[in-house]
User: Which sequence fits this backbone?
């Protein structure tokens, strides 16, 4: 490992009380407008307008805090959040933690975006409808698909939308009762299994073969006249691209099923490979991952869901269309699944994706993809030199934009597992990494994704942090198991709180009942 | 190597020399070699047909602003549209905090590195819990419709029953979301959605019809308060009692900004409460500020069946210090995939922080006062509009929305709204297709942002328009 000096980082530490513990009775954070005297004289007291049994008897037990101190409190909490932009967030793989341009935020905050009501007449939404329409054209080009809906409020929601579209498609053909099974693969995101189950399908999960690819023979064995479709990822969360993906698609198509391509992992293949060309009927992109919308502590997010022509009639209503003169909302879609989210979706994510693609163009998008793959293979080179780190499956095959590594050897040799290492690396000023969705097919997993945002120096630093944590594990396992050290708080004392109804407290009032009562007794 | 260098501000490693160094370190000649796993027949040949890039930030900003300028905003026009996306005042401090880089860009960092995120979320759950008078509040989902649908699915699992009763007066879009979540009839876990009628004069639930429809098959009785058309449902104790007598859960959808002055649903027997926190400090954002929540009593069965993430406060090894842990994480789709409870995924997390800041600023007095102003303004507008010749307003009680019927003026809502645009007013949502039984009607929303003169402007414009 190259000689990299790790930072002497310490997380901001304010020992900040809960907001419920701040302020004094009578303090005010803000004063809302009062109804005009004439208004009050005309309609009377508010209480006279409420049926007596529906009047709130006691004010809500909310804190009373001055404006300065509310601001100060939340500023401190923001400082106690490493987030994505201050730490090097290479670790949250499958999440594509890329830079979200600040200029976009200025536009989102402007009245021309923030002060629009989704039910305004179309003539007054021409700007945002144009952007939505144009983004659809871009994504059609990027995926090869025929139509897109931006109604889903996140990636998993787009995947759920697909399950609803598959359902409606088979229903429209009178085959839904027969086709009640959806197939997915274990290295596809959990939503590829969970959302079709929610939509009412039985879910069959195909496990990997010895090389880490979804087992083609296993797929052939489970495909039948009951197959509604397959929903899976490529490259999967392992970063392994399945070169025979078109054969899988054919197997399912031959059985009359539909094929959905979960493109949460699209960052490495923009302009390189397209869902349509591999035969897929539908796909989705995460506007908050691949297309730069900030992750916002898990949303607001944008799921862009795209389909082939045959499936377009089933998309949620409305779609944004253009008649040559003006943009309009098309509700006249009798086969549509209806609504899966209110209004038009998170159009702030649509606007950011539009701006991001416009900044880069076709060449830029390709550079994004190539750089993410370049970064990943560079980081891979560094990480694979570290004792205790391994990269299961597909030996000798290149990963694309991310890799699922294993610290199994480290765990066997030192007792230090991936959660411990995750807790240790944050002490070097980088965000904790994503381990893996469950179940852990890869033992003691971690899944970095050094997308195009990160520099060579970032990759070097990140690998050096892993190297240091592993080195410490071999020298003094206890030390790593007790990490982190440089954060705002110490270790959680009793993790069983998470499982024990007598101990958990999901609000401050519940905490008061369960703990303060005991203290008083 | 690439034919020409394309160095972009978002891509540090687009510098050719760096790429060369990295390729050398990897031991390949070109990036192309790294794509060896993608076979030729799956490769996209040629160049994507996209507009020419605008890499200059300034030029790009001008370009996007140019397009956005074609929008008319609810600040340029006076807006009376609501229907689930409501224009309220957003305090400056809320904007300041939700736009903090740390919150805006954080994702799945843990309790140690992202402590502040977890604390802010916990404060959101706690403040909402006070507003609702309930001890558990979930991480958010996409919107109210999804929260309602997931609540109904929870009820079905908890009771082992597969029929739910919902009010006939419900937002058509919300109903569509719910129905998608309840699956078509032919599917094995289909939940039948049946409607409870309303009383024509009051717009409130028809209790007799509820009694007729409820049975041992009913998993839940779902109502909304205020109702979709703005009325204050006051038969809540009776509805709750009827639901419980029949072994069904009582689910209440609420507009949380009403709860400074309306009884919290925890007080009238709600087993599960859902709704949207958009009114608590989120901009209307063309519908991008929506964020659904689910809340319930602190009982294991509810937590075990809730599909959304739940977090608990937890002591650390230092006295008086707290961290946060995910409750029953195993039950979610992240834990059990298709065997988990429905699904959970990235939805609208930032808005919980916005709502926490909002409720902290407002405090008990602020929430009461804003509720008072809203209900007074809305009832004032309703009264004045109802006095216009040919116009009727429907139903008695109103929180912030009310129905205006134009049957007596011989013009459609569409025509009236088009005419109002001449006065720079966005009229209410057209209900004529959604609820044909109300004739030529529209749903108007009036909040604390409307001044007396705004209301007078609407009233005089309506007088002109219906002449």
Assistant:
């Amino acid at each position: 490992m190259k000689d990299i000096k790790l930072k002497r980082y310490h997380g901001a530490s304010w020992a900040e009380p809960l907001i419920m513990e701040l302020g004094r009775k009578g303090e005010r954070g803000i004063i809302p407008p009062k109804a005009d005297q004439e208004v009050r004289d005309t309609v009377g007291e508010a209480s006279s307008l409420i049926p007596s049994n529906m009047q709130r008897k006691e004010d809500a037990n909310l804190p009373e805090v001055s404006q300065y101190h509310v601001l100060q409190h939340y500023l401190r909490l923001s400082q106690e959040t490493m987030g994505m932009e201050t730490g090097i967030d290479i670790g949250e793989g499958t999440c594509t933690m890329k830079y979200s341009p600040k200029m976009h935020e200025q536009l989102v905050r402007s009245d021309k975006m923030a002060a629009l009501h989704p039910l305004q007449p179309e003539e007054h939404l021409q700007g945002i409808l144009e952007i939505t329409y144009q983004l659809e054209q871009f994504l059609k080009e990027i995926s090869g698909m025929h139509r897109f809906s931006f109604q889903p409020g996140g990636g998993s929601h787009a995947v759920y939308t697909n399950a609803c579209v598959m359902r409606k498609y088979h229903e429209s053909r009178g085959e839904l009762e027969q086709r009640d099974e959806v197939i997915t693969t274990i290295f596809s995101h959990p939503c590829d299994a969970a959302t079709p189950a929610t939509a009412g399908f039985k879910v069959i999960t195909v496990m990997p073969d010895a090389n880490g690819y979804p087992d083609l023979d296993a797929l052939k064995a489970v495909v039948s006249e009951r197959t509604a479709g397959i929903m899976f990822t490529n490259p999967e969360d392992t970063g392994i691209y399945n070169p025979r993906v078109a054969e899988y698609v054919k197997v399912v198509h031959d059985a009359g099923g539909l094929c959905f391509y979960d493109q949460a992992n699209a960052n490495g293949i923009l302009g390189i490979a397209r869902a349509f060309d591999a035969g897929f009927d539908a796909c989705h992109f995460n506007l908050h991952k691949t297309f730069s919308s900030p992750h916002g502590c898990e949303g607001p997010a944008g799921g862009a869901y795209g389909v082939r022509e045959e499936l377009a009639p089933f998309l949620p209503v409305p779609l944004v269309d253009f008649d040559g003169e003006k943009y309009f909302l098309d509700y006249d879609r009798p086969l549509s699944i209806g609504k899966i989210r209110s209004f038009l979706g998170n159009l702030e994510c649509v606007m950011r994706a539009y701006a991001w693609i416009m900044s880069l163009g076709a060449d830029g998008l390709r550079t994004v993809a190539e750089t993410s793959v370049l970064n990943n293979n560079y980081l891979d080179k560094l990480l694979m030199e570290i004792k205790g780190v391994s990269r299961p499956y597909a030996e000798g095959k290149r990963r694309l934009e991310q890799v699922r590594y294993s610290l199994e050897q480290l765990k066997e040799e030192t007792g230090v597992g991936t959660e411990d290492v995750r807790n240790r690396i944050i002490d070097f000023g980088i965000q904790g990494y994503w381990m893996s969705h469950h179940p852990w097919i890869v033992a003691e997993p971690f899944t970095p994704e050094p997308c195009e945002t990160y520099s060579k120096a970032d990759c070097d630093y990140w690998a050096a942090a892993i190297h240091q944590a592993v080195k410490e594990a071999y020298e003094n396992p206890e030390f790593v198991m007790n990490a982190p050290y440089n954060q705002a708080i110490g270790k959680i004392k009793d993790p069983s709180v998470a499982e024990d109804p007598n101990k958990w407290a999901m609000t401050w009032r519940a905490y008061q009942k369960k703990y303060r009562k005991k203290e008083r007794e | 190597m690439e034919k020409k260098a394309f160095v972009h501000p978002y891509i540090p490693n687009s510098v050719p020399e760096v790429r060369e160094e990295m390729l050398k370190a990897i031991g390949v000649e070109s990036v192309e070699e790294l794509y060896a796993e993608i076979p030729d027949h799956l490769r996209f040949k040629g160049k994507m047909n996209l507009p020419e890039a605008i890499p200059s930030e300034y030029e790009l900003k001008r370009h996007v602003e140019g397009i956005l300028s074609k929008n008319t905003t609810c600040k340029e026009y006076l807006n009376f549209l609501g229907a689930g996306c409501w224009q309220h005042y957003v305090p400056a401090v809320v904007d300041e905090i939700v736009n903090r880089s740390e919150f805006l860009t954080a994702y799945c960092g843990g309790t140690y590195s992202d402590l502040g995120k977890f604390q802010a979320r916990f404060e959101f759950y706690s403040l909402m819990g006070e507003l609702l008078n309930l001890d558990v509040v979930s991480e958010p989902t996409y919107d109210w419709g999804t929260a309602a649908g997931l609540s109904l699915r929870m009820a079905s699992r908890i009771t082992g029953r597969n029929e739910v009763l919902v009010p006939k007066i419900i937002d058509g879009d919300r109903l569509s979301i719910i129905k998608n979540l309840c699956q078509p009839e032919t599917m094995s876990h289909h939940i039948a959605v049946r409607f409870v009628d309303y009383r024509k004069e009051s717009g409130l639930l028809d209790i007799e019809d509820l009694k007729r429809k409820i049975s041992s098959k009913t998993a839940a009785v779902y109502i909304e308060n205020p109702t979709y058309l703005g009325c204050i449902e006051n038969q809540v104790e009776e509805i709750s009692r009827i639901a419980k007598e029949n072994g069904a859960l009582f689910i209440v959808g609420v507009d949380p900004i009403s709860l400074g002055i309306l009884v919290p649903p925890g007080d009238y027997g709600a087993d599960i409460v859902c709704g949207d926190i958009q009114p608590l400090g989120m901009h209307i954002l063309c519908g991008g500020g929506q964020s659904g929540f689910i809340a319930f009593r602190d009982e294991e069965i509810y937590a075990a069946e809730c599909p959304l993430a739940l977090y608990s406060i937890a002591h650390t090894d230092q006295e008086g210090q707290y961290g946060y842990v995910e409750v029953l994480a195993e039950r979610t789709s992240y834990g059990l995939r298709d065997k988990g409870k429905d699904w959970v995924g990235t939805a609208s997390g930032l808005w919980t922080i916005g709502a926490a800041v909002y409720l902290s600023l407002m405090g008990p007095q602020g929430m009461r006062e804003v509720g008072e102003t809203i209900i007074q303004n809305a009832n004032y507008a309703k009264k004045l509009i109802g006095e216009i010749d040919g116009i009727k307003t429907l139903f008695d009680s109103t929180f912030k929305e009310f129905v205006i019927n134009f049957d007596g003026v011989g013009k459609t809502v569409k025509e009236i709204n088009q005419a109002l645009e001449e006065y720079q007013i966005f009229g209410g949502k057209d209900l004529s297709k959604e609820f044909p039984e109300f004739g030529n009607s529209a749903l108007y929303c009036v909040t604390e942002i409307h001044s007396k003169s705004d209301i007078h402007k609407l009233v005089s414009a309506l007088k002109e328009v219906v002449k």
